[in-house]
Amino acid sequence: MLWNGKNVPNDDPKKSKKQFGPKTGDPEKFETWEEFWNAWVNQIQFMIKHTAENYNLLEQLYFLSLGVTTKLGTLIIIIFGF
């Protein structure tokens, strides 16, 4: 989680160390608990936001695949289970 917002290091040089999240610093250089905590909270907030945005996008694509293009239509499907 705390690789300064980069992907987890792995064996694929194309994928490793790409910037994905916020830059929060090198955890090995943190001098206080607060520095670590603030970096961790920043990364977690980013991951939650990113996950929610992806979920919402997938949900919209699902409803579009059903032919629903309005929020009212989406609400009707959710309420009545169509």
Description:
This protein has 82 residues and is an all-alpha fold. It contains two helices and no strands. The chain has helices spanning 33-65, 71-80.
Question: What brief labels describe this structure?
Answer:
elongated, 82 residues, 0% strand, mainly alpha
List the SSEs and their pairings.
Elements: H1 33-65, H2 71-80
Summarize the structure.
The protein is mainly α.
Which range does the strand content fall in?
under 5%
What's the overall geometry?
A: elongated
Structural class: mainly alpha
> What's the total number of strands?
0
Helix percentage range: 40-55%
Mean pLDDT: 78
Which H/E pattern describes the elements? HH
Give the quaternary arrangement of the chains.
single chain
Poorly predicted ranges (pLDDT <50, ≥5 residues)? none
| Alpha-carbon distance between the two ends | 39 Å
Largest sheet: none
Provide the gyration radius in Å. 19 Å
Count every helix, treating DSSP H or I runs of 4 or more residues as helices.
Answer: 2
